[in-house]
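Second opinion, please. Please look over this fold, written as tokens:

===
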Amino acid sequence: MSKNGNAALGILLGSAIGATLGILFAPDKGSNTRKKLTEEAVLAKDKVAATATDLSEQLEQEMVSGKATLDSQIESVVQNASYKAEDVITTLEKKLEVLKARNKKLQKTS
């Protein structure tokens, strides 16, 4: 989980705990306290759901971005390897020509 997600979750939990303790220690009837606790629980549930949705969307965006970056890097490596292979082939072809020329000279002298 990202630092933003941890911070949001911490703030959310702290708010819920603080609200619950405030309601429990407030001088009020039991029925009113239960009603307030129920309302706070519903609000906390909604906030958790919203936070989870936001975090899920952020994670999905990061995954898509990471995949695009990875695809780009792989394409770059493949292109570089292709150019390097072409350079190696060209160099080997030149060396082969030199060796063929030397071989012809050796065959003429023998």
Summary: Residues 59 and 65 are 10 Å apart (CA to CA). The mean pLDDT is 83.
